[in-house]
């Protein structure tokens, strides 16, 4: 059996468009994999995001341990995506990140339709794809990269 796992970034999204994409994909639980769950984009900081998701019937969970360390975030902002991947790959070997992956694995195995959230619109340039790849080494998943709407 393959468990469905979606990924989504909110960089170019509006809250209504973002929620519509999640609902259309049948997402039950949004798992925030940002190290820092704040945002300059209205509606996407932790508390506001959780409330917006609740209004759409989607649960929210923040797994901070799966976030990108500060030096990885700086590399990504500078467009140094290969450096970000190297930094994040090393982070994934830490005890905290491994615990976060174990927790994510248990949630996915429960059969709930989940989506992994981060800022970057392009999944290929975001650590959430690396999280999905690491999860795929633990459990059979089918990944769908969602595009949030404006």
Describe this structure in words.
- By secondary structure, the protein is an alpha/beta fold.
- It has one domain: Alpha-Beta Complex (Protein-Tyrosine Phosphatase, Chain A), CATH 3.90.190.10.
- The protein is 43% helix and 17% strand.
- It is built from 6 helices and 5 strands, in the order E-H-E-H-E-H-H-H-E-H-E.
- A 5-stranded parallel sheet has the order 3-2-4-1-5, sandwiched between helices.
- Helix 3 runs antiparallel to helix 4 (81-92) and helix 4 (81-92) packs across helix 6.
- It is globular, with a radius of gyration of 14 Å.
- The model has no long low-confidence stretch (mean pLDDT 95).
Tell me the layout of helices and strands.
Layout: E1 3-9, H1 15-24, E2 29-32, H2 46-55, E3 59-62, H3 70-77, H4 81-92, H5 95-109, E4 114-118, H6 127-136, E5 141-145
Parallel strand pairs: 1-4, 1-5, 2-3, 2-4
Helix pairs in contact: 3-4, 4-6
Q: For this structure, what is the CATH homologous superfamily?
A: Protein tyrosine phosphatase superfamily
What is the tally of helical segments? 6
- In the CATH hierarchy, the architecture is Alpha-Beta Complex
Mean pLDDT: 95
**What proportion of the residues is helical, as a percent range?**
40-55%
- In CATH, the topology is named Protein-Tyrosine Phosphatase, Chain A
Q: What is the number of E strands? A: 5
Number of domains: 1
Shape: globular
- Any idea of the CATH class? Alpha Beta
Main sheet?
A: 5 strands, parallel
What value does the Rg take, in angstroms?
14 Å
**Sheet with most strands: strand arrangement:** 3-2-4-1-5
Q: Which series of helices and strands comes N to C? A: EHEHEHHHEHE
Percent range for β-strand residues: 15-25%
Structural class by sheet pairing and helices: alpha/beta
For the termini, the CA-CA separation is 34 Å
What oligomeric state do these chains adopt? Answer: single chain
**Contiguous runs where pLDDT drops below 50 for at least 5 residues:** none
